[in-house]
Write a structure and sequence with these properties.
Blueprint (H helix, E strand, L loop, with lengths): L16 H31 L11 H12 L4 H31 L1 H19 L5 H7 L3 H13 L9 H30 L1 H21 L22 H27 L2 H9 L3 E2 L2 E2 L4 H26 L6 H25 L8 H28 L5 H8 L1 H14 L7 H36 L8 E2 L2 E2 L2
């Protein structure tokens, strides 16, 4: 089998560049999820305690700004909102990273800058005083995410049927890193202290940089950057309609993903408070449950790749909107499992089996919908704004984390069962909306592509993107 560019496909039937892009993100996700799995409990159990919070530079101004909008916040509510803001902004900054890549540095240099910023952010996390600065610098993730994902899409011609499978492989590979990050960082934090867990996350960012630099020659060549675009043609009506359809699906995906985002936020607090974590080998680190989610993503992705390939050979492929709706249904079941466990936890702590099952379902759901969502954006985006539109894919996680962070502030004022039932219900509504309205929107996108002349269709290949 050959790639769309005529070269030999050397990585699972795909261009070799896919391997380097996937493993760069694998190490970046190792670092990011290792840190993220510790963040909420670090704030709740250590940093935001009286006498400790005052050591954080800028904390008084930051807390005052939040409380001016939201009202008084307990330390736990402040931690939940802080996590939501941080996790959300991680997925907003790809828009900025996409703009920088398109207009200034190009995708490759922007990725390198992003890795260096994240490394500095993890280093700053080692010290309590620089906590807020650390959160700001780690947002260098935005320079990575959209630009690496866009380069995956650029490896394939517009009609290459391997695109969705490529993004599934990409998701599969990076989640291998997401499995081991929480395992290693969580164990180090429990044995030696929080800052050891954060420190090793920073070291692994340098490994990500090495992998990316080694693979540069296998990535799509970049066209010269044109900073003066005042004479560029405006987007066509068909392109604007495509963007509008994508934005409508983005809204539904945000609603569908709120429960998944909450698992990383108050889900960590619920496990620490409601689950019996003592085992024959000692107390299980809470951070390890994030690895269960990632392991489920890896296992389920392998399964869905095989299923989708078998369906394709039989001419019975499910639509992208149906795949996303199925993912939402599985995520709903996972969040509902936490709600059921919360009802039992009112009398005593519950078995580890409840969060294990919950994360297994949410991870399986993510495997169904996230790679499909990235492939959908790559397929239907106007080619001249490809990097920015791929960054737009991550806006679902931006809005989802911001909103779930706000919902987290109500955790202490509701019963856990009601809180998690609310999250499961919201997730179900988003999934149902995708099932009902998604096919109509994808048909609209297909019709818009049919109206575009061949020269305006996105071309994704190793010689670069169509201007």
């Amino acid at each position: 089998m050959t790639s769309s560019t005529g070269g030999s496909a050397t990585f699972l039937g795909h261009p070799r560049g896919l391997a380097y892009l996937a493993f760069t993100e694998a190490w970046e996700r190792f670092s990011f999820y290792g840190m993220q799995s510790l963040l909420v409990l670090y704030m709740v159990q250590s940093l935001f305690l009286p006498g400790q919070m005052e050591n954080v530079a800028g904390m008084a101004a930051y807390r005052g700004a939040l409380e001016a909008v939201l009202g008084p916040l307990s330390p736990q509510a402040l931690a939940g909102q802080t996590f939501g803001l941080y996790a959300g902004l991680v997925y907003f900054t790809p828009l900025i990273g996409g703009w920088v890549a398109d207009r200034w540095l190009g995708a490759k240099k922007t990725v390198v800058v992003g890795v260096l910023l994240m490394t500095a952010g993890h280093a700053a996390m080692v010290f309590d005083q620089s906590f807020l600065l650390a959160l700001l610098l780690i947002l260098g993730s935005g320079a990575l995410k959209g630009n690496i994902a866009a380069q995956v899409g650029q490896l394939y011609a517009a009609q290459d049927t391997r695109r969705t499978t490529a993004f599934a492989i990409f998701s599969l590979s990076i989640n291998v890193g997401a499995i081991f990050g929480p395992l290693v960082c969580g164990l180090l934090a429990q044995i030696y202290g929080w800052h050891y867990g954060f420190g090793v996350a920073g070291v692994l960012m340098l490994v990500a940089l090495g992998v990316y630099l080694k693979g540069l020659r296998h990535f799509p060549a970049e066209l010269p950057i044109r900073r003066d675009r005042s004479h560029d043609a405006a987007l066509t009506p068909q392109e604007w309609r495509s963007i509008a359809a994508i934005m409508a699906m983005l809204f539904m995906l945000v609603v569908m993903g709120l429960g998944y985002d909450q698992m990383y936020n108050m889900g960590m607090v619920w496990i620490d408070q409601a689950v019996d974590l003592d085992t024959a080998l000692g107390r299980m680190p809470v951070a390890w449950f994030v690895s269960i989610d990632s392991f489920a993503i890896v296992a389920a992705t392998a399964g869905v790749i095989a299923l989708w390939q078998r369906q394709a050979t039989r001419g019975r492929s499910s639509s992208e909107s149906t795949k996303i709706a199925i993912g939402g249904a599985l995520t709903t079941i996972g969040v509902a499992t936490i709600a059921f466990g919360s009802a039992l936890a009112e009398s005593s702590k519950v078995s580890i089996a409840f969060p294990v099952l919950a994360f297994a379902f949410t991870g399986s759901g993510f495997a169904w919908y996230w790679a499909t969502w990235l492939a959908l954006i790559s397929r239907y985006s106007p080619s001249r704004i490809a990097a920015r539109m791929m960054a737009t894919a991550y806006l679902s996680a931006f809005f989802g984390n911001i909103i779930s962070g706000y919902i987290a502030t109500f955790y202490e004022t509701m019963s856990p069962m009601m809180f998690w039932s609310l999250n499961a219900g919201i997730c179900f509504l988003g999934s149902a909306a995708f099932y009902v309205f998604g096919p109509m929107l994808t048909r609209s996108l297909d019709s818009h592509r049919a109206d575009m002349p061949p020269s305006d269709l996105p071309l994704r290949n190793l010689q670069g993107t169509t201007p």
